[in-house]
Amino acid sequence: MMQRIVARSLLFGSALTLWLTGCSQPASPLAADPYAGGTSYPWAYTAPPNQLTPLSLTAGENNLYYEPILAARNSWGPVEIDRSNGEQAAGDGKTLTLNGTTYARGFGTHAGSELRFSLKGTGATCDRFTAQIGVDDEVGEKGSVVFQVYLDGQKAYDSGTMTGASVTKTVNLDISGKQELRLVVTDAGNGISYDHADWAKPLILCQATTPSLTLNQSALSVYHLHTASLKATFASYKAGPIDLQLVADPAEQPPGGTRLPSPVVLQTTSLTLSGAGAETRDLVFAAPEKLGFTNYSSAFHLLVSRNGQLLSRVPVQLTELPINFTASVDPVAVSGRSGEMKTLLLTVTADPPLDQAQPLAVGFQMGTLDGSEIMSVGPVSGDGARMQAAVTFQFGTNPSGPVETNQLDVGIRVGEITTGYRDAFYGSRPSFHLLYTLLP
């Protein structure tokens, strides 16, 4: 109702003032025949800043009578609301009438004229514009005009030439995804005499919209110390910032227990949306903390909110995976006498690669009873995908005398990633086997 009062007061109460101050020529006394002679009495209007909102359309049927006009112009005094153009003064028109049918709502204009509206809906998606158009009965069969409709600056409808004798036409346009509506009337190229043009019962039809969020996949795995992304499509959201939050699925809460903190975190905690019909963004997840004893997997919900109001909620399964390390040694078999030392080349690979090479060290040695062991691991070369270091192996003692071949199982620590309790429990700890022969 407030919009209606504001719009009507601006176009009725202030129309004459706007005309007198904004026209290209001063007002003049009414002529004996006000519809003839090609005389023009131009009028123009632009909505004052912050006085009329362009975001007023709501779900359902919206009569443009109730919508704020962003800008208007007319060639025979002010545009009239809910009455014909009449003469040059504001409010001097009659009931809108086309071929004997009267209309309670609409705009009375005069070629050339223009009305501009926003199609941005509040909680709605507008998909249709309809109107009844024609030359008002007040000029009889005279007048000749062309009605045109522009959507986002592109002409979407042209009535062709219509006169006072023409049958009323119906405009029915798909306006899905459009942002601006312009209603234009031209003089059909023969001057503006008698060109009283009515936009009767102009309606904007809109559908209620609920913001929605869809993910390109319902589950995501993130490697330890790495990130991974989901593509999220936001539909029917208003323009502006949104907040994103990851919360545990209550169904996975241990009965009477405490849920362990998730090692997978959401890095994309806020976005700014453009307000387009649907837009897709990348959401980044990370696994920055130490990996536990086993692979981690749990159900979550991704929440989208604005100013504390929940807008969307979707489930997602998140899993943290260990980095796949492999270790090998070259050569894989050596022979030597008691106390002798051999230098081997240790290679460790990481999949997916690490950001940089990590120090390598012996985590455990198993299988030897004669004292043979890896004595040291040298400095590391290479990158985060492939790391190499020299390894010193020392033969133990062969108390029995005959030649004896044994196997040494060696676990490798990769920096801080597999240090400590994870030497034994890391899901993909690297290890290698060395065959060695003690000679007499």
Q: What labels would you give this structure?
A:
Jelly Rolls; NPCBM/NEW2 domain-containing protein; disordered N terminus; NPCBM_sf; rod-shaped; mainly beta; 440 residues; signal; Immunoglobulin-like; Glyco_hyd_98_carb-bd; 6-stranded antiparallel beta sheet; 3 domains
What does this structure look like?
Keywords: Signal. This protein is mainly β and 440 residues long. It has 3 domains: 2-208, NPCBM/NEW2 domain (Jelly Rolls, Sandwich); 212-321, Immunoglobulin-like (Sandwich), CATH 2.60.40; 324-439, Immunoglobulins (Immunoglobulin-like), CATH 2.60.40.10. The chain has 3 helices and 32 strands. The strands form 7 sheets. It has a 6-stranded antiparallel beta sheet with strand order 1-3-8-13-10-11. Strands 2, 4, 7, 9, 12 and 14 form a 6-stranded antiparallel beta sheet that branches. The protein has a 5-stranded mixed beta sheet with strand order 16-23-22-18-20, with no helix packed on it. A hairpin with a 2-residue loop joins strand 10 (144-151) and strand 11 (154-163). The longest helix has 12 residues, at 2-13. The model is unreliable at 1-33 (pLDDT under 50).
